Amino acid sequence: MSDSIEDIEMRLLLEAIHLRYHYDFRHYAQASVRRRLRQAKKQLQFDTFSAMQEALLHDETMLSRILGYLTVQVSEMFRDPSFFLAIREKVVPHLRTYPSLKVWIAGCSGGEELHSYAILFREEGLEDRTIFYATDISPDALETAARGIYSLDRIAGFTENHRAAGGKTSLSDYYSTGYGGAVFDKTLRERVVFSDHSLVTDAVFAEMHLISCRNVLIYFDRTLQDRALGLFRDSLVRNGFLGLGAKESIRFSDHASSFSDFARTEKIYQRREP
Amino acid sequence: MNDAPERAIVIGASAGAIEALSVILPALPADFPAPILIVVHIPSDRSNFLSPLFAAKCQMSVREVEDKEPAERGIVYFAPSNYHLLVEEGGTLALSADEPVQHSRPSIDVLFESAAEAYGAGLVGVVLTGANEDGSSGAQAIASAHGTVIVEDPAGAYAETMPRAAIRKCPEAHVMALDAIAPFLLRELGRS
């Protein structure tokens, strides 16, 4: 970041969040962080980031409000249907050869992606042998994901995506309406472990067959992207799969040689033999 | 980062974008001395057709942005549909899936504002035809950072709302006909 007063204040604010609450945003991609923090400052009605920092240090309730701005992620079920079609048609046949499976949805946000996988795995008959790990740094996001309720106006888009992703059933089989939204069947979450985990500061916690981390790395700078990709490499079984967002790439990473292209346009990679 | 270009062009266009860009981009040489970053509003289900379309027409290389690639001279970069495009200091391109801004993702304002911080006086922003007001705050940000702003003359534009809004918020903008924009860019960049 440059040396304008605002940038200095912003850096100090991120440092304060780290020292006081151990959330580390210091290596997030700066242009997005700057946008999000300015939005937070405006909506929480602070004149300066220094004022925001003081409130944050002395008032714990301020943390979750600011985290809300820093971690907001907007996803949808079966986002980029061609990705999920490739998982279904190309990755699933490999997964079938394992007697038990571990799948990690890293940065699960509000759970749209997790529910997409749970439905796809049920349709493909893999659900019973699978444990899903859904992780995020935001407690609010994890709570939303574990609730599995999405507003009704999003369902038409989800349904269209599910169909385009090769869905073998009707999406409406998996939810009922209530609580002002579509409530997804709790049996979809029976094999899910929700957990607070940071790609920035935490370590490997299990050996995975598939890791899905889409549109999370775009918020990281290259240093942090390298850390996360190293973590994914160390978490995957030999020939395990890594799915990234459509416009994310491992091309610029130190770990590029640890993975090979499996489905190039869909950004599905495979862990190379070590 | 020493070799990162100090100058860049950002362009925003909405309704009528393809026709307008077809006047500007093919007129620029393969060795154009700056990167050109473009946001076009397109429905997300028609994604990814822009870069092949213009690659066939242009002397410059044309591609869709991939996260964290460096912006290089002589290359036209299109923001992928459904993502915001931002510029990091040092001229690295970054994407975000944050919520739409003024109903748009990608948003012209988001690109222009981040590029204004990254390139300062080295930036030229171009607001073309469109039926909304995206780009006007961004144009203002570019002018505040001492960059140059060009707006397509609303009188000749396919949709005049966007250029009019930009002129209103950024009165110091150079207003010119579509076919004058490429020659202006060549003169402007030739000086540096």
UniProtKB/TrEMBL annotation, chain B:
CDD domains: CheB. Keywords: Chemotaxis, Hydrolase. Gene3D superfamilies: Methylesterase CheB, C-terminal domain. It catalyses: [protein]-L-glutamate 5-O-methyl ester + H2O = L-glutamyl-[protein] + methanol + H(+). SUPFAM superfamilies: Methylesterase CheB, C-terminal domain. It holds the Pfam family CheB_methylest. The active site is at S14, H41, D134. This is protein-glutamate methylesterase. The lineage of its organism: Bacteria, Pseudomonadati, Pseudomonadota, Alphaproteobacteria, Sphingomonadales.
